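Budget justification aside, the reviewers requested a transparent look at the raw inputs and outputs of the sequence design task funded under Objective 1. We therefore reproduce one unedited record. The lines immediately below are the structure tokens for a 142-residue chain.
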């Protein structure tokens, strides 16, 4: 799925996001991650997050790729702050975490950010195919 311009602008060069994965017993596991938007070879958008360890969210995605992601707008809306809610299907790939996290640190923390450390392991990427978009904002009116 290709996101509309308003959703792409909200995510920008990177964003803080809440990701929900499913534990083995079906209960939700919630984490805050940095995400960036990447274009697949097919021309679709996908969210990408980097990780250095095999955390619960990675174990969960390997078992069941269904995820939900929420990104809150930094701008105040009317009564509710705008946010995008994405339901998707995630997969884990090996390597690439330092490159993604370096870009995200510069976009989210600031241009002088020095994260991750130079000796970081290759880590893992969570790649999220966007299946459904909702929330409060122009992206949800479709």
């Amino acid at each position: 799925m290709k996101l509309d311009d308003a959703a792409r602008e909200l995510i920008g060069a990177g964003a803080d996001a809440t990701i929900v994965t499913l534990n083995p017993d079906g209960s939700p596991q919630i984490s805050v991650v940095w995400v960036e938007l990447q274009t697949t070879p097919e021309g679709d958008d996908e969210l990408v997050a980097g990780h250095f360890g095999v955390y619960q969210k990675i174990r969960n995605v390997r078992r069941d790729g269904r995820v939900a992601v929420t990104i809150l707008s930094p701008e105040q809306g009317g009564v509710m702050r705008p946010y995008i809610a994405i339901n998707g299907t995630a997969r884990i790939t090996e390597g690439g975490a330092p490159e993604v996290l370096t870009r995200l640190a510069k976009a989210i923390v600031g241009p002088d950010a020095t994260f991750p450390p130079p000796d970081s392991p290759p880590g893992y990427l969570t790649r999220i195919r966007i299946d459904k978009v909702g929330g409060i904002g122009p992206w949800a009116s479709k």
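The helical segments are 5-11, 56-63, 97-108. Residues 97-108 form the longest helix (12 residues). Computational costs for records of this kind are itemized in the attached budget.
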